[in-house]
Amino acid sequence: MIDAKWNQREKSISRAAFDKALKNECNHIIETIKEKAGRLSKPKEIWELEDYLYQRRIEIDQKYDYRYSVLIRVFGQLVREGWIEMKELEGLGAEKLERIQVIAGLND
Question: What is the DSSP-derived secondary structure letter of residue 88?
C-alpha cells in the first residue's frame, strides 16, 4: 500500500476500530452458528457446520491483518463490508481517510 507513518493517536484510533470490527464480525459468526446449530437434524449437518466454521476462520485470519503497511486496505474492506463505519476512523490523517474511502467504494 502506501508508506504512511502512524502517529500515536492514529495507532490508538486504528486499534480501537480494528478490534471493534473483529468483535462485530465474530459476534455475527456466533449468531449464525447458534442459528445453524438450532436447526441441526442430521448427523451430516454437524460436519457442514464444522466446514462453515473452518471457512470463516480462514477468511478472518486473512482479512484481519494489523500490520500498518496494509491497514488502510484492511479498513477499506471492513468499511465496505459494514463491520465498521468511517466515523470510527475519524482522527486518522486526511490522506489515510481518503484512501480508505476509495478502497471502500465510497468515492464513486
Answer: G
